[in-house]
Specification:
The complex is a heterodimer.
Chain A lengths: L1 E9 L3 E10 L10 E6 L7 H15 L7 E5 L4 H5 L24 H13 L4 E6 L5 E10 L3 H9 L5 E5 L9 H7 L4 E7 L6 H18 L13 E3 L5 E5 L4 E5 L6 E2 L4 E7 L4 E7 L4 E7 L3 E2 L4 E7 L7
Parallel strand pairs in A: 3-4, 3-5, 5-8, 6-7, 7-9
Antiparallel strand pairs in A: 1-2, 2-4, 6-8, 6-15, 10-17, 11-13, 11-16, 12-15, 13-14, 15-17
Helix pairs in contact in A: 1-6
Chain B lengths: L1 E8 L7 E8 L2 E10 L5 H19 L6 E9 L2 H5 L24 H13 L4 E5 L6 E3 L2 E5 L6 H4 L6 E5 L9 H7 L3 E6 L8 H17 L14 E4 L4 E4 L4 E5 L6 E2 L4 E6 L6 E6 L4 E7 L3 E2 L4 E6 L4
Parallel strand pairs in B: 3-4, 3-5, 5-9, 7-8, 8-10
Antiparallel strand pairs in B: 1-2, 2-4, 6-16, 7-9, 11-18, 12-14, 12-17, 13-16, 14-15, 16-18
Classes of the chains: A alpha/beta, B alpha/beta.
Chain lengths: 316, 310
Amino acid sequence: MVETIASVGLPIDETLKNKKNRILPEKSAEEGKRISIVTGIHGDELEGQYVCFELQRRIEKDRENLAGIVDIYPAVNPLGIDSITRGIPAFDLDMNRLFPGNIDGNMTEYLAAGIIEDIAGSDCVVDIHASNIYLTEIPQIRINELHEEMLMPMAKNANVDFIWVHGASTVLESTFAHSLNSIGTPTLVVEMGVGMRITQEYGDQLADGIFCLMHEMGIWKGKVKQPRQPIISRDPDDVNYLNASVGGLFIPAARHWEELKKGDVIGRIVDPLCGKVLDEVKAPVDGILFTIRDYPVVDEGSLMGRLLRKEAYKFE
Amino acid sequence: MNKKIIYEIKGMYRDDFRITGYEFGEGAKSVCIVGSSRGNEVQQIYCCSLLVKKLRQLEEEGRIRAGHKILVIPSMNPYSMNIQKRFWPTDNTDINRMFPGYHLGETTQRIADGVFKEIMEYEYGIQFTSFYMPGDFMPHIRMMDEGYSNVETAKKFGLPYVVVRKVRPYDTTTLNYNWQVWNTQAFSLYTTTTSRIERNGAGQAVLSVLNFLSAQEIVKYSVPELMESKVVCDTDMVSVRTAKSGIFEPLIKAGEEVVVGEPLANIVHPYEGEIMETLFAPMDAKVFFMHNEPLTYANTAVIKLVRDQA
């Protein structure tokens, strides 16, 4: 059942509609729980689009196993998705810095508030992101340390490879996930793949994970896969950031999610004009490369990858 | 005048990215003035260019008082200005959301760090900045409601208004906020426009900085008697919102006085020319902010009013 949860008339003969699809079990779900799948806050992140499709395809195939409510919100920033724009077009605003919004506020705040109002009270929310167009991420869940206790049991069931518990930051208080977690609606932030592309393998992996979550919550009665055991990192020193020492063209030499020894070459920054290697990027420690640069052009400081040090491979 | 490179990074095909500063006077770090941090802030760089010209003249005439150093950085972001893009050319991040910066971080974090190391420890910090919504302002000084700055000092600019802003979470990475964390009295100066030059507004802004420098006994400059600034809290302003989207037809300008019931703007049907909505003044007030784009969205605060007796 497709519903419009917020709409705004645009200046010239168009209405912006924020839509969701509510999937109900064949029998009444009055006692059932609710999971909300949310994506498209950033218009250039498309990995979640496939997950929304694939989840519904699988549910439809075995609808008799559905015992709760599944709400799909595929395009929180619909103008952004349809115009390949990360932020909210015309405003150049990052929508994930506008929450919880304001129902009496400007168009952007009103849309944000409408979404929060509709989703609040879900028993679990999965907010799917796809990094950006520059970096590829291994399927992972990021948790603000303030909400670890509430979210970790769910995150472990989500079939991701990595759970990254990060420190609290004032500026992150205006994110979608923080706004919902702060009012007791558990919201997992998934980062996977890369902007403007779909990595079907990751989408299938996360879809498996969402079925595991639904099964654990009693929303799905069918068989599910055993979720993979994620690496969990809580210590900020576990993660090494690889920033470009110089601008140029980054040519990777390592594979994503590859285990590396200290000194292994991750890539080179080259100068195409003079045919010179400007820098060789090496692993600063033994570890695994969970983020790797996808977009080749780098400025000084651009992130080329993140390496999780070997001592951090803790499974719980 | 001492012209110096504040921060520099090498470009791949573009010329190197340089942030240039102009120092006047010698001695303690008294005032730092920063212009555009976004690529569309042309009025802001223009104001700073006029200030550089004026301060150079004052320095040559020996009118910068001994023991005071003034630094002016007309633009923190020439790369974006040169390609007419508001945020950083490659990753669209906002330098004014990266403070205090991080020297090992991403590009705009490094730029913020490089600049901040140079401009911290000044007694006063003045930033010419802009609003995220397109519009014209009554010139004013804006300051945070917590921290190191104080209203009495802000009044020394002699601008019509001092706006005290309640700190929001996303403010914590701005230059203004971080200046205060490191004990600089920080003031954001909003001139009349952003992406187009407005000479009268720029002249007023430059004069207001000279007022301030004179009042703080940093320069010798005789200024006309200061206007008494009205102090308002940003939450006290009354927003006039659209209910409809369409062509925005303003009937008044920023700075004008209006009376209750006066029509302020029409929203016109883009195909049929009919007036779909007229926005009226809900009270006697001064127009503090006026939307200046030809189209508008529904639910948008296109006009902000402030009570004249604030």
